[in-house]
Amino acid sequence: MMSQSVQDAINRQIDSELSASYAYLAMSAYCENRNFPGCARWLRVQSHEEHGHALRLLDFLLARNGKAELKGVSGQARDYPSIAAVFEAALKQEAEVSGQIDALYELAFKEKSFAALAELNWFLTEQVEEEKVARQIVAKFQLVGNDPASLLEIDRELGSRTGTAAPAPQA
Ligand SMILES: [Fe+2]
Ligand SMILES: [Fe+2]
């Protein structure tokens, strides 16, 4: 049985992953409205991945006979000044989640929750990848500035991302 503090922290992280999923969905809708279907697709797939992270933690919690306390995702609608700003917000969000995972790992270590440490190892590795990918996309947007042809090229590239829960790629 895991300590109450580790269970509470995992519950908070489940909410955080769902909050990230929700934020990516909102970003995706923004991009769709701005006629960047590739960016919208990439973000929709990412939203689905974050939902998967929440389920992964929930399943772990339940497997350890822990109690799920899903408190709901609160927040306010966000607006973005540009498509590039969407991905800057995504990078910031990923950096925050990395900090949360680090703190959760530290807590599980202190509480000698060894099974939780094993599970969280996957999340540590995943955050390295997610931050790297987001940083690369932000760098591309910075590089091209407002050049329409280059922005369309980035949109095409991001639209090639495969995954579930996304509309079919645009022809
Ligand atoms: Fe995540
Ligand atoms: Fe993420």
Q: How are the secondary structure elements laid out?
A:
Elements: H1 4-33, H2 37-63, H3 83-110, H4 114-144, H5 148-159
Protein model, in words:
With 171 residues, the protein is an all-alpha fold. Helices cover 75% and strands 0% of the residues. It has five helices and no strands. It has helices at 4-33, 37-63, 83-110, 114-144, 148-159. The protein starts with a helix and ends in a 12-residue tail after the last helix. The structure holds fe (ii) ion (2 copies). Residues 17, 20, 50, 53, 97 line the site of one fe (ii) ion.
Instruction: Give me the number of helical elements.
Output: 5
Strand content: under 5%
Multimer state: single chain
Give the overall average pLDDT: 94
H/E element sequence: HHHHH
Bound heterogens, unique: fe (ii) ion
Distance between the termini: 51 Å
Largest sheet: none
Unreliable stretches covering 5 or more consecutive residues: none
Structural class: mainly alpha
